[in-house]
Amino acid sequence: MAKDSFKRYIWILDTIQRYGRITLKELKAKWERSSVNDEGKPLADRTFANYKANIEQIFDIEIKCDRTTNEYFIDNEDDLNGNSIRDWMLNSLSLRNLLNESAGLHERILLEDVPSSHRFLTSIIGSMRDNKKLCISYKGHSMTEYKDMVIHPYSIRLFKRRWYLIAYSEYSKGIRLYMLDRTMCVNVLDEVFEMPEDFDAEEYFNDIYGVRQTDRSPKAKVVIKVNANRCDLLRNLPLHPSQTEIETTPEYSIFEVELKPNFDFKQELISYLDALEVLEPANLRDEIKLTINSMYRKYI
Q1: Burial of 251 (0-12, 13-18, 19+ CB in 10 A)
Q2: Residues 268, 129: Cα–Cα separation, whole Å
Q3: Phi, psi angles (nearest 5°) of residue 125
Q4: What is the overall mean pLDDT for the chain?
Q5: Burial class (CB in 10 A: 0-12, 13-18, 19+), 230
Q6: CATH 3.40.1130 is the classification of domain 220-297
Q7: Residues 47/52/55/57 CA torsion (nearest 10 deg)
């Protein structure tokens, strides 16, 4: 099954990365005791070669063999931190594999659940790799029933425990955003599509926080004032790559970001409650004020 294969890819990657270098004989011995080897079969040379090739295709991670020692290693390990989705897959699923090997820790280590993280990812990633069209049954928040639609999968993104699929809709004739937890089924079609040469996933999200492009907010310089006891949170987890700290005092710091203040960004600002104040631009400050007043009226 595709889901089982995906787990095995992760196990192989995680094992090689943890040991740095490992012979195929050593890898096979660990495979015998692995939780992903649920059929109890030995790891055949041809199976390992197939897994290795698929890992390179899906994750763009090359596993090489040092013929002088017959040890396998990850050739481009320095590049692993350059892809956030790949990092999430490796880190999250590798931890699950580790927990499976240490059953006694299951109740002591709690992981955040990501709905639909395993249900459709394998099929979607495979269709992206092969440029195959998808037929999905989808029901957005504003829709009353599920609707079948044919799409061209361009990119996927994880944001706040939800997987999003960025795809071209043959019905709408444009790029749309689909939430995997609002998707009932995903079928890979035989028909291929041509990936646009000018589409860049990072560039698509470059000017926003989160995923939503729908409100078409113009790009703006946003200045926020944050209480000193919450500043480290922003320093460690910046709101946006453009974030800079332009003033620091014992009581507060002032940060500046340049982006399109979309719904996701406004929601994040409000989550800081009274520890954050929007200083500029004036229209965003007014929007936040209206939202806070609306919230206040619900409690009086």
Answers
A1: exposed
A2: 33
A3: -65, -40
A4: 84
A5: middle
A6: no
A7: -100
Label residue 1 by pLDDT band (50, 70, 90): very low
Amino acid at 87: D
The contacts of residue 134 (CB under 8 Å, 6+ apart) are: 123, 124, 127, 150, 151, 152, 153, 167, 186, 187, 188, 189
Are 280 and 221 contacting, i.e. CB atoms less than 8 angstroms apart? yes
Phi, psi of 191 (to 5 degrees): -75, 135
State pLDDT tens for residues 135-151. Answer: 999 988 888 899 999 99
Residues sharing a CB contact under 8 Å with residue 246, sequence separation 6 or more, in sequence order: 223, 254, 255, 256
Query: Hey, what amino acid is at 11?
Result: W
Question: What's the pLDDT tens digit per position in 165-202?
Answer: 999 999 889 999 999 888 988 999 999 999 998 998 88
Structure tokens at 287: 């929007």
45-71 pLDDT tens trace: 999 999 999 888 877 788 999 999 999
Q: What are the residue ranges of helices labelled H in the chain?
A: 2-19, 24-32, 45-59, 84-101, 121-130, 201-204, 228-236, 263-270, 282-297
Q: Which residues of 93-128 are buried (b: 16+ CB within 10 A; e: fewer)?
A: bbebbebeeeeeeeeeeeeeebeebebbbbbbbbbb
The class of domain 121-204 in CATH terms is mainly beta
Note the pLDDT tens digit of each residue in 206-215: 888 988 876 6
Rounded-to-integer distance, Cα 87 and Cα 230, Å: 27
Closest by CA to 164, choosing from 177, 150, 182, 152, is: 177
